[in-house]
Design goal:
Four copies of one chain form a homotetramer. Chain A has 101 residues and is mostly helical. Chain A contains five helices and no strands. Chain A is globular and about 40 Å long. At the A-B interface, α1, α2, α3, α4 and α5 of A face α1, α2, α3, α4 and α5 of B.
Chain lengths: 101, 101, 101, 101
């Protein structure tokens, strides 16, 4: 996965639809949270064991919602100038210090 | 970024703390949604323009929350057997068909 | 509004559909959070001023989502044995001590 | 519970702190969603049965989070001119038509 290439494609969709004015960090965080709830919705009436054995339809749906969340997070990080990979590696190292010693 | 290497480190933290029994897909989706709300909280009282110009402290905080969300999504996808990159590329192609023609 | 009467009607719907086994506090909190995101979705691409002047259709939709949230919160409080009115009055008094002196 | 009296007290806190400029419907919906996630967080690592038997500390915490959500919903409905009781009764009647016949 080349994050820069994906971001270029996300920005191409945005620009083709004239969505740039909507893409403030505030709005992108809201949109990501709405997609997150659509992921949560898949699991809300399942018990934990059922959540490990999704139907093929729900499994595909979960992948789509994860993708929607990731796309909004990538757009958000681009607007804020956050390097998503650096942020992930820094927090992971921090968690290792806190929880894995 | 090597997703497999990151996942191994996430699983090492999980196993060191005996968290595996908590990591049902249902619970991981809930945990991701809680981290998402912590990201949203940064922006809740800012107007859209202010959200584009975060203080250094809020900027760093946003990166940490994005990282927390990503880590739970990676753990979730691992539990479900979802290839996050494939899911992202499939949904991106779908969005291109729907929105960029 | 008589909360007891409303709760009886909510429980009648639940029992008619045999939903009781789904109504753990954990699940009801998740369901409330999904409805909350449907409320947030109404506002996600609006600026703050636009959010003050919803179309009649969005205004009606917002009322429905608020109602969905309230119904899940009432069901949740009933399961947990929380008196919603008492909880509200206690937190309000607390906020008055913290923020209004 | 007299909703008008509670709303007056919420507005008094708001005005004492000069928060009115922050209280657009968009922002109030975001704030309510953040409080909702704090409610969800109480349950995220509990299984469904554990969620029915909260510790006294978690039980009190849940009541506080429910109260926070209600306060933001009341402020939101006031800004939008939504009668919360009417909205609830209308949606309840609708659910009865859909699910209880």
């Amino acid at each position: 996965m080349n994050p820069d290439a994906i971001l270029r494609r996300l920005h191409a969709i945005r620009d083709r639809n004239d969505w740039q004015r909507f893409h403030s960090p505030k709005n992108l965080a809201m949109a990501a949270s709405v997609e997150m709830a659509e992921l949560v919705e898949i699991f809300q009436w399942l018990d934990e064991d059922e959540s490990r054995h999704l139907s093929p339809e729900k499994h595909a749906h979960a992948g789509q919602e994860v993708a929607d969340i990731l796309m909004y997070l990538m757009l958000l990080c681009a607007e804020l100038g956050i390097d998503m990979e650096q942020a992930l590696l820094a927090k992971l190292a921090d968690n290792e210090r806190r929880f894995a010693q």
